[in-house]
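Reviewers of the previous submission asked for a worked example of the structure-prediction workflow described in the proposal, so we include one complete record here. The input consisted solely of the amino acid sequence. No template or homolog information was supplied to the procedure at any stage.
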Amino acid sequence: MSKKRWEDETLKPTLEKYPERKETLLDKRDILNTPEEVNESEIELPGKFPYTRGIHATGYRGRLWTMRQYAGFGTAKETNERFRYLLAEGQSGLSVAFDLPTQIGYDSDDAMATGEVGKVGVAIDSVEDMDALFDQVPLDKVSTSMTINAPASILLAMYIATGANQGVSQEKLRGTIQNDILKEYIARGTYIFPPKHSMRLTTDVFEYCAENVPNWNTISVSGYHIREAGCTAEQELAFTIANGIAYVEAAIEKGLDIDDFAPRMTFFFNGHNDFLYEIAKFRAARKLWANIISKRFGSNNEKSMTMKFHTQTGGSTLTAQQPHNNVVRTAIQALSAVLGGTQSLHTNALDEALGLPSEKAAKVALRTQQIIAEESGIPNTVDPLAGSYTIETMTQNLHDSSMALIEEIDSKGGMLECIEEGWVQSQIMDSAYKFQKEVENKERIIVGVNDYLEDEEGQSEEITKINEEAIEEQIKKLSTLRKERGDVSKYIEKIEEIASTDENLMPHIIEAVRNKVTIGEVCNSLRKIWGEYRPKDIL
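From that input alone, the workflow returned the following structure tokens.
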């Protein structure tokens, strides 16, 4: 029976008797997908171009995804304790959250840091803090992801110096630096320098690591924060990959060969609630990137074309109301990431809508991944949902709609131009507004928020508190470091000198931080030469 005949003979009378729950569903998806929507000849095999079904022929049968829980708060010593706890509980990689002053290049004793030190992540001022952060954590055996952008080059320099202090050469270091400054202008706002100079720092990291830190992923192009700002799945894909294109173009303009840096480019996506759609999103992302690297940039190197990505479950989907519901949300989102073929995964804790995760909640979040890995049986099959008419149709539709949006960005002059003009930001604002109106009008149900409500009085979660005394100690320690380290002015002056040239800054930043120059001092020297970015008013 054809789909058209089914619609006429079976679907129509059923709808007349039992109308759908809503007059208009929130999206335009078909009620049913059949082989008619799927070109069977285009269903690829795992590990083969364009990698829709995954970048490895065996999926997770040979190696599970890296369970990389994001953590960081207070001081380096406190975060180190959490790191070692998570590793002891079975976590297989580290992910560092930095506090706001660190993210925007201020030392803990700077007036601009007042009230923010250690609040949303760990405070890192100098290589001494980095040493403490990874105390008893062997950097030749554990890979580390660092969510840092504007001062990414400085934090990587500190990590390299800490590795050397442990006796681990930079050639042996494994991990990822986010280093994705473009999404800061779009979604988060933790930028420092104008885009041109920020891109120079990004590509300096590309160049330096290609020659000296071969096992390090030099960027994690992040759609996560764009999605958190309120965009759709299509926009998350398109804007993220358009940012990736901008980085590739900048690196090539710098004189780098694509196959020298593209294999170490990674991506970072959001795991949201729409289960099947999110699976399709991850599959479509790989297909998009493979085709762009191959057709647009002319690389046939498998390592350049294969998209490796980290997933974090959706922070914006967590609710302060009925927080235990977040365990279920996180499990669904994590499952979509695994079925979509992620390389690493962070699962949010149930209490993160209330504050920093407690140790107990962090353990439940990790156990969520471990149950999927060890009990669900899903990792035993490569791309288990391949061949599903719905999944294949969604994958292709997401690919096509996202590609159309990328082409629109190209027609407007590329991602940098669209960001500077505020076009991308306005698109996200419109999507976020639409979503919120749907919630307020109860067109979109959020359990415990706009339906299935209950009296929350007397219900509470244990919230992790920041140790204010430890923060004061952090500031005192920084003062002591400045008194005892000797004169560092020559290192700062050298950075200022090189910033005015085209020479790679990384060796000079590494030398500076190795001699205990602080993050604030490096950033202030660059502020002096490059200035700070001020966005256009797009409202």
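Strands lie at 66-71, 93-97, 144-147, 175-177, 216-217, 219-222, 265-271, 308-313, 344-346. We consider this example representative of the routine output the project will generate in years two and three.
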